[in-house]
Recover the amino acids of this structure.
């Protein structure tokens, strides 16, 4: 029972009570309460008042403790409220984590605070941020679930505390964790879980470098801070994910816009190219359109590497490896800043397209370029079909011309329908390429003859051309060079003509064949010539021997010199050869001084060339001299016979 003291408003008891109340109001320390009670008891000198004073002192101390707890809780709640406000204002996850550890250090007054986050993929928890740490090893440590104090908190989702971690056997010690804790110098550690619902996302720690026990109030305070921190961390994570999602959404929007633009450009390009094909546009127009759409230079080659069209680019051969790679992969490939795409019809290679000046070709433009190759394939197939049909008709006409299969009038009419005028001089050219398939040589010849407005075909297992020409020999050499480049192999061309009218082509063809055989026999493969350019062989091979032309070709400069100057170099030549090419015998036959013979022969050498006394030239010159002598004796001249 509490002691009852009569309240008279005076006396030691009353005075002591007033002092205790004043001390409570002042928030004085417990020692002041003890001194006041002792002084009151001495004044009361025992009795009921002394007991009452002692009881009142105990009550006052209990009230003081309660008030202190309330004031401390009020401070902690205010601090937590401020912490929640600070965390809510933060948007960056790293800033949130740094604020959490720093506020925990301020609230608990510990040496070190730190925070670890769980790694769900690795199945452990790793140090993310620290405040007050000095050890690099400690800041990089990772704890497996159940290892050390932190790993146990992360695994069990319960707070754990230790007054001296190194000596505490409750935890699973590892060499790595213990070494890091020792290097940092930590002893007393408190760890509480960061929880989102039932899921633990990390651990918040407070630690001192001296051994001590953490009070329940400190555990509760750090746990409350951890709860706020977990919510702030999740909010920051969600905000970061939202930002990332917005960035991804914006990027996706830009991608969609770019894709839509690419689709629009692709559709426009496809329409333009298809329209070109449908209205019969040529390959040059397609090359120009591709270059305009893709903003680069364009080259189109056929399967043999011959250039078909070019727009805005310098001529260059198609890179064989790039064409092969594109053909194998079915896609355009880059090579040295140029994009190359094979033009295919199924597995068949029709040609290739090269795009220059666009080394940075994007995926959308690359697909557009590849689509252009499909349209180009359609055009090449269409052109090939038309060309093959026309070549068949032209080949049939050529065969009939060379075989005299119809009357000349009907042949001339058929030729006019193909825009070939047989009333103009034409020559016949027979082609031979030993290392090239005949079909390939015929294709190259057909391309060449279309430009010349002539005919090409296969006759008697040989490729034959009929084309307008008044100079068969020169045109044969041109054809040999041109076709040799087209098929990348030597092409020999024998020519005959010119022929006017449909009736003479069969004979000209036979003469061109003999000329071709002579070129090959003489080792002059890869060149072109007509019989008149083969010297005396041309005289022997030709069906329409032009003796006067042969004499003129062989001795013309000498004959012209004699006619202009009244000299007799031709007679000197005849005497020289009749004397077995002996100058001394020739001077006797001519009745002149040997120096005169020497001078005349020097002049002949200047007119006919320094090699005029070579065995081959000597034979031709002697033959021409005999023809001229016979013609002069017969009075018939040296005309055609």
């Amino acid at each position: 029972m509490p002691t009852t003291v009569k309240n008279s408003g005076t006396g030691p008891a009353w005075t002591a009570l007033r002092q205790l109340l004043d001390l409570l109001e002042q928030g004085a320390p417990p020692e002041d309460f003890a001194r006041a009670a002792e002084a009151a008891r001495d004044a009361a000198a025992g009795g009921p008042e002394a007991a009452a004073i002692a009881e009142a002192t105990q009550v006052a101390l209990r009230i003081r403790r309660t008030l202190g707890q309330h004031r401390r809780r009020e401070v902690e709640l205010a601090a937590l409220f401020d912490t929640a406000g600070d965390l809510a204002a933060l948007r960056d996850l790293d800033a949130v984590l740094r604020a959490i550890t720093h506020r925990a250090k301020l609230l608990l007054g510990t040496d070190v605070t730190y925070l670890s986050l769980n790694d769900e993929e690795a199945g452990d928890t790793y140090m993310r941020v620290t405040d007050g740490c000095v050890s690099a090893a400690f800041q990089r440590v990772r704890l497996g679930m159940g290892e050390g104090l932190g790993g146990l908190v992360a695994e069990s989702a319960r707070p754990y505390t230790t007054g001296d971690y190194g000596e505490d056997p409750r935890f699973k010690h590892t060499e790595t964790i213990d070494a890091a804790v020792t290097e940092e110098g930590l002893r007393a550690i408190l760890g509480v879980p960061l929880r989102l619902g039932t899921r633990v996302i990390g651990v918040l720690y407070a630690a001192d470098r001296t051994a001590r026990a953490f009070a329940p109030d400190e555990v509760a305070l750090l746990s409350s801070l951890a709860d706020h921190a977990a919510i702030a961390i999740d909010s920051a994570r969600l905000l970061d994910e939202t930002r990332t999602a917005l960035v991804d959404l914006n990027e996706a929007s830009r991608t969609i816009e770019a894709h839509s633009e690419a689709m629009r450009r692709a559709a426009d390009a496809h329409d333009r190219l298809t329209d070109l094909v449908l209205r019969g546009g040529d390959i040059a127009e397609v090359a120009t359109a591709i270059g305009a759409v893709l903003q680069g230079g364009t080259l189109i080659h056929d399967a043999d590497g011959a250039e078909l069209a070019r727009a805005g680019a310098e001529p260059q051969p198609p890179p064989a490896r790039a064409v092969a790679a594109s053909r194998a992969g079915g896609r355009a490939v880059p090579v040295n800043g140029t994009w190359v795409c094979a033009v295919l019809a199924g597995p068949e290679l029709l040609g290739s397209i090269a795009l220059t000046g666009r080394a940075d070709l994007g995926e959308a433009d690359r697909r557009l370029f590849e689509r252009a190759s499909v349209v180009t394939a359609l055009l090449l197939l269409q052109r090939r079909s038309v060309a093959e049909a026309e070549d068949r008709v032209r080949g049939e006409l050529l065969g009939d011309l060379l075989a005299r299969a119809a009357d000349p009038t009907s042949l001339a009419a058929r030729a006019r329908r193909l825009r070939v005028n047989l009333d103009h001089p034409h020559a016949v050219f027979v082609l031979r390429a030993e290392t090239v398939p005949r079909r390939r040589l015929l294709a190259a010849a057909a391309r060449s003859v279309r430009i010349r407005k002539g005919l090409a075909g296969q006759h008697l297992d040989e490729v034959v051309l009929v084309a307008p020409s008044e100079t068969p020999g020169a045109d044969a050499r041109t054809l040999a060079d041109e076709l040799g480049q087209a098929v990348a192999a030597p092409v020999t061309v024998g020519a005959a003509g010119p022929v006017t009218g449909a009736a003479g082509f069969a004979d000209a063809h036979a003469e061109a064949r003999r000329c071709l055989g002579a070129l090959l026999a003489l080792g002059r493969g890869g060149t072109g010539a007509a019989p008149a350019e083969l010297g005396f062989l041309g005289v022997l091979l030709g069906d329409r021997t032009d003796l006067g032309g042969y004499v003129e070709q062989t001795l013309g400069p000498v004959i012209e010199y004699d006619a202009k100057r009244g000299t007799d170099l031709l007679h000197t030549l005849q005497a020289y050869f009749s004397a077995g090419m002996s100058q001394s015998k020739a001077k006797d036959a001519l009745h002149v001084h040997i120096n005169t013979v020497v001078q005349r022969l020097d002049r002949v050498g200047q007119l006919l060339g320094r090699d005029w006394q070579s065995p081959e030239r000597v034979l031709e010159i002697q033959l021409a001299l005999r023809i001229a002598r016979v013609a002069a004796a017969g009075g018939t001249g040296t005309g055609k016979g």
Summary: The chain is about 60% helix and 15% strand. The first strand starts at residue 112 and ends at 119.
